[in-house]
Amino acid sequence: MNEPAPAGSRRVVIALGSAQTLAWGSSYYLPAILAVPMADSFGIPSSWVFGAFSASLILSALVAPAVGRAIDVRGGRGVLALSNLVFAAGLAGLALAPGFWWLAAAWLVMGLAMSLGLYDAAFATLAGLYGRAARAPITGITLIAGFASTVAWPVSALLEEGFGWRGTCLAWAGLHLLLGLPLNRLLVPPAPPPERHAAAAAEAGPPPSRLAMPLLAFVFAATWFIAGAMAAHLPTLLQAAGATSAAAVAAGALIGPAQVAARVAEFGLLRRFHPLVSARLAALGHPLGALVLAVFGGPAAAAFAVLHGMGNGVMTIAKGTLPLAVFGPGGYGARQGLLGAPARLLQSGAPFLFGLLLEAGGVGAALLLTGGLSVAACLALLLLQAAPATPRA
C-alpha cells in the first residue's frame, strides 16, 4: 500500500493545504474566539451563537452528499472555488448582522460553505484527480491544515482586539477572495476527462460487504463525536480528573503537536501499510489515554492528551483514505458525503451531550462513553476489508 505521490501533486497539495487552513480557520475555529463578543454585542447568551453554529454544521451534513455527487461528475476545482465565494458572503453577512436572527442566517450560509470547502470536498477532489494514489496527497493537505487552529486562533484574537468581531469577519472574507479563491481556482487542476470517470467507476467494483457502508459510517460518527466532545470539554475533563488548571491547559496544548506528529508517521512509517491498519491503531489512541487517565488521574493529563491527539490526527486522514481503500475511487464524492453526514450531525451535538454527561455522571461515566465508542470503532474496523486490487467491471 506504499503508493508513490502522483507526479505534479506537490503543487496541488500546497495549494489545497493552504486553502484548507484558511477555510477551517475562518469557519469551524471561528466561534471559539468570536462567539462571546458576538453575543455581548447583541445582549444574548453565547450559547445562542454556538447554537447557530451547530445549526450550520447540521446544514453542512445534509448538503454534503449532493456536493460529493457534483464533484464526482464535474471535478472539485469549481466547487472549491465556489466555496470561497460562499465563505466570503457568509462572513460578510456575519459582519453586517443587525441582530441575532440575521446572524443565525449568516451562519447557515457558512454551513453551506463548509459543505463545499472543507476536507470532504478536498478529499473528493484529490480522489477524482489521482484515484487510489490519492492517499499521499490527502495526508499532505492534513499535515498543512493541521495547523489551522494554531494559526487562526491568534490571528482572530488579534484582529478582534484591533478591529472588533465585525472587522475580523470582514478580514477573513477578504482573505477568501484574495487568497483562497486564486489557490483553488488557479492551482487545482481541472476535472479529468469523462473516460477517466468511467475508468474510476469500473475500478471501484462492488463493496466488500453490505455492512461496509454502515460500519464506516459508525466509525466516523463515533470518532467525530469524541473529537467534538474533547475539543469543547478537554480542560474541564482533565481538571475533574484531578489536574490543576495550568496542567490542563498545558496538556491541551499538546494535542496539536501530537496530531501533526501522528500524521507525519502516517506519511512516512505507516504509509507502507494499508489505511485500515493505521485507522485501527488510531482508534485505540483515545481509549488507551482514557484508561491511563482513569487509573492515574490528574498526573496523566499530558499522556491522555498526547494519545488522544495522535489517534485523532490519523483518524482525520482515515476519513479520506479509508473509503478510497475499501471501495475504490468510483463514486467517491457521493459516498464521502453519505459517510460524513452522521458524523457531522453527531459532532454538532457532541459538546452539549458530553457536557451533560460529564456534569451528571462525572469523569468515570464520560471516559466510559468515549472509550467505549473508540473500542467499538476499532472492532468495526476489524470487520472491514480492502477492495480488490485489480479493477472489476
Automatic annotation (TrEMBL):
Residues 12-389 form the Major facilitator superfamily (MFS) profile domain. Gene3D superfamilies: MFS general substrate transporter like domains. It comes from the Bacteria. InterPro entries: MFS (IPR011701), MFS_dom (IPR020846), MFS_trans_sf (IPR036259). Pfam families: MFS_1 (PF07690). The chain crosses the membrane at residues 12-36, 48-67, 79-101, 107-131, 138-157, 215-234, 240-262, 283-307, 363-384. The keyword Transmembrane applies. The keyword Transmembrane helix applies. Keywords: Membrane, Transmembrane, Transmembrane helix. This is MFS transporter. The lineage of its organism: Bacteria, Pseudomonadati, Pseudomonadota, Alphaproteobacteria, Acetobacterales.
